[in-house]
Write a structure and sequence with these properties.
Rossmann fold; 32% helix; four-stranded antiparallel β-sheet
């Protein structure tokens, strides 16, 4: 499990995260929701280990506990982190003409260099899972924002692919942290990415934390919703239990009605003025 307990992060006089405790279980997707500036990206960076050993340079003060599979995050080496968790940031720009295959292969470097035939097969599999197989030999500087987002998604899938799939037992627990993974994607590719995440989270035993802005899309695919307001976790629970008009108004700043139908995820619609 990837967990935070009583996590507080301050930058100067500003408290960005406050007494925050969050759980990411293997095999589950947790969607993180909140307004712009609520602290979502900061939380994701903290849980990825970005602040450890670099706090003074960021003029940040971090207190509380973050652990990955019961080991404090600060005790893990970069190699251990890179083989156990992957991070998909909001956007990455490339200035050099790498191919999409070369970007996907970057995910294999923590596992030995990304130079073997098996690494190339895994990278190609990841591109296919991400809906980017036809882009494999394309120069990434020529790709659209949505195409590049799919290639980057392939990179983290290649990084977290377990050594053996379809075996008799679950692979070791791994974790994927995504910052607005659907932002650059059209509607079809949004659903493709999230349905792929849902399938692989179970098959590959991956715990997923994904920052999202659409509560209805999150409720459709996530096992749990974590609602953040001004750096404080208001609630983490299933979509059915946590999506209420009060929670949505507090965390997203909009009045909604929540539609509930048996056997379907809740659906929020703006209230009529």
């Amino acid at each position: 499990m990837l967990t935070t307990f009583d996590l507080t992060l301050r930058r100067g006089s500003k408290t960005v995260l406050r007494n925050l405790s969050l759980r990411i279980r293997p095999g589950e997707i947790v969607a993180l929701l909140g307004r712009n500036g609520a602290g979502k990206s900061t939380l994701l960076k903290a849980m990825s280990g970005e602040f450890h050993g670099n706090l003074q340079n960021n003029e940040a003060q971090l207190t509380g506990h973050i652990s990955l599979n019961e080991t404090p995050l600060a005790q893990l080496t970069p190699q251990q982190l890179a083989t156990t968790r992957a991070v998909l940031p909001q956007s990455v720009q490339f200035s050099f003409p790498f191919t999409a295959m070369e970007i996907a292969l970057l995910g294999r470097y923590p596992h030995g260099g990304g130079r073997t035939l098996n690494d190339r097969l895994i990278a190609m599999e990841a591109l296919a899972l991400a809906g980017a197989a036809t882009l494999a030999e394309r120069d990434v500087t020529t790709l659209s924002g949505g195409e590049l987002a799919r290639v980057q998604f392939a990179r983290v899938l290649a990084q977290l692919r377990p050594p053996h799939v379809n075996g008799g037992s679950l692979p070791g627990a791994r974790y994927l942290l995504l910052d607005e993974p659907t932002a650059a994607l059209d509607l079809a590719h949004q659903h493709h990415l999230l349905s792929t995440l849902r399938q692989l989270s179970k098959e590959w035993n991956i715990g997923v934390l994904a920052i999202m802005h659409d509560p209805n899309l999150a409720a459709r695919y996530a096992d749990q919703l974590a609602w953040l307001a001004d750096g404080t976790l208001l609630v983490q629970d299933t979509p059915t239990r946590s999506m209420t008009p009060h929670v949505v108004r507090t965390c997203l700043g909009i009045d909604v009605e929540v539609i509930r139908q048996a056997g379907k995820p809740p659906f929020a619609i703006p209230s009529m003025v």
